[in-house]
Amino acid sequence: MTEVNWQKSSYSSAGDGNSCIELAFIGTTVALRESDDPRTVLTTSPARLGALLQSIKVGALDHLAAVPET
């Protein structure tokens, strides 16, 4: 089996214990994992990841993080 080259964001600090998202390409698939739980891996296509990131940038998903009024 080929070793996967996980890449951490340049915004993440160096050292252990830092929570961050890591990305790797496995063939034509993008794999994502959280550094705190590296055994759990999500996979997607580059196009779908790009669409998600674009939606986040333009605020299209902000309503999902809103705290409901009580």
UniProtKB/TrEMBL annotation:
Species name for this entry? Streptomyces endocoffeicus
Q: Mind telling me which InterPro entries this protein's record contains?
A: DUF397
For this entry, the protein name equals: DUF397 domain-containing protein
Q: Which residues form the DUF397 domain?
A: 5-57
